[in-house]
Please model this.
Amino acid sequence: MSGKIHNAWWVLIGLCMILGIGKGTLNNSAGLFLPSISNELGIGMGDLSLYFSVSAIITMLYLPFGGKLIARYNIRLILIISIICEAGAYIAFSFMNSVWGWYLFAVPLAFGGIFITVIAGPVLISQWFKKRNGLALGILTATGGLFGSISQPIVGNLIANQGWRFAYLAIGITAIVIAVPVILLFIKKMNPNKGHYPYGITEGDKESQKAFDNIQNKGVSFVVAKKSSAFYTLMLFLFFLTSISSFTMHIPTYLVDSGFEQTFAAKAMGIYMLGVVFGALVIGILNDKLGSKKTTILSMICGLISVSLLLFANSSSAVIFIALILFAFVTSGIGTLVPSLALSLFGNKEYSQIYSTASLGLAIAAIVALPAYGYIFQFTGSYSGGLYAILVMLVINIVAVIFAYRGKTKLEKSGLWK
Model:
């Protein structure tokens, strides 16, 4: 028995594959389509990117219920429906001729993405990994980056050579064909009643299992959490982190506007996704060693350097690559830093509901930030204003993390964190 691979690692493999498909391939390729669609159909960049806001509104409405659904219903069925919704939207996009088509199919796109790209990974990892939680989150996010580094150039070449319609159709169908069997084979909830215990708990060790049962109930309740300054500071942090990360969708257009070719933009996005792989693993390891607070501050500093390079030294392809790799140390934080921060600040007691509700900051940011960058470019002809705003948000996030942990201290002193 001791030589068997722990169930937690099989679940992680499954999560990595479906996140790689849903986020690394589908979501992260969305920006590559924008210039071609805008040019062919004559849709303004701000008007087109507004479909991201529609998607974000749906995400905002459903997120508070997402944690409850995963806790109550069959996780495999939820994820199968989710990938069909998300990938099916891409298939539908291939037939659209009006911007209203993107607004309409942003609804199933968002519903599927709530579970595939936001909730399922952190919730299942928090259940299955007592030890190496940060590393598991890092591996999960890194795999999404690895999938993206492979798929971004492929999608870019498909758009350039076969057109955006064929590219939408091809990746949508491929995503469903691969993801559904993976979900059926690898994904399952942890259930102590069936003899399941997380990685780090010795099978058959009653003392170890008793300690685990105690840990599962340690922290604050959702009712207490949502009244705390730490909770709203975490939401603010996630709002700004998502706003910063939203610029990723506009990087291809930014690079084309800066004088680079579409094929270079696709290659640069591939480099960026490799940066996500490396950054997520490093952040995961640092999370386990330094803690969430220090790791988060280091990540934001990487972002300050990255955006400064994009603003003041963007004529060199080598500098662009370095800047995007550093930027990946920030964007990968959505999958690594935020779940770890939520666990550190509020514990395990009602983690899924606290995390999914705090993730409203993610949805609200997408409503505002994604089209904002598009409109900045549409009305000013440049992304500089957006990049300066990102610098300010990075500084605010450093301050926000410090205040979040002060809020946790208040909860502990008042006896509410137990």
Q: What stands out?
A: The chain is about 80% helix and 0% strand. The first helix runs from residue 7 to 26.
